[in-house]
Design a protein that fits this description.
By secondary structure, this protein is α+β, with helices and mostly antiparallel strands. It has one domain: 3-Layer(aba) Sandwich (Aminopeptidase). 34% of the residues lie in helices and 34% in strands. The protein is built from five helices and six strands. The strands form two sheets. Strands 1-2-3 form a three-stranded antiparallel sheet, with helices on both faces. Strand 1 and strand 2 form a beta hairpin. The radius of gyration is 15 Å and the shape is globular.
Length: 154
């Protein structure tokens, strides 16, 4: 449910349309989450407060960066409930993700952020992530511009 909550808050800023609903019903499911957990090339981490999930992140070791110069795992998800923004918990999760990347033998990390998600972009730039290009997220018949960010960890 956290993924659904954060996704809607981030992307459905003008309300929920059919394309969004179709995507969410197909992609943010218990079955898809179980496949992620079972996949050895993916790692999913949860952040809890008093037994309640308030954040999560996912590392993908099996995806290729849209910028072919970047050969590193992807931080495909970094979600924190809006109620906890500004508390340092997002930074804590990101730091943990970077440490996991280093422990896995890599020295860099990349991610994409929706170009209109100014809060996320400012957050990543403040954490020394550099924009390294653009790509497009396809949903239904639409394409949404995302910016590629990258950081060297050593």
């Amino acid at each position: 449910m956290l993924k659904l909550q954060v996704w809607l808050h981030t992307y459905a800023t003008d309300g929920i349309e059919g394309e969004y609903a179709d995507y969410l019903v197909a992609e943010i499911t218990q079955e898809k989450t179980e496949l992620i957990i079972q996949n050895p090339d993916k790692k999913l981490f949860l952040m809890e407060k008093e037994g309640r999930i308030i954040g999560c992140y996912q590392l993908d070791f099996d995806t290729k960066c849209p910028n072919p110069e970047i050969k590193a795992p992807e931080l495909s998800v970094l979600y924190l409930s809006q109620h906890f923004h500004g508390t340092g918990l997002g930074k804590q999760m990101l730091k943990h993700a970077e440490e996991e990347i280093l422990k896995s033998g890599y020295d860099a990390i990349w991610l994409t952020a929706y170009y209109e998600n100014k809060q996320a972009i400012a957050f990543y730039q403040h954490q020394n992530y550099a924009m390294k290009g653009k790509c497009y997220f396809e949903m239904g018949d639409s394409q949404y511009e995302n910016w590629v960010f990258w950081k060297t960890l050593k």
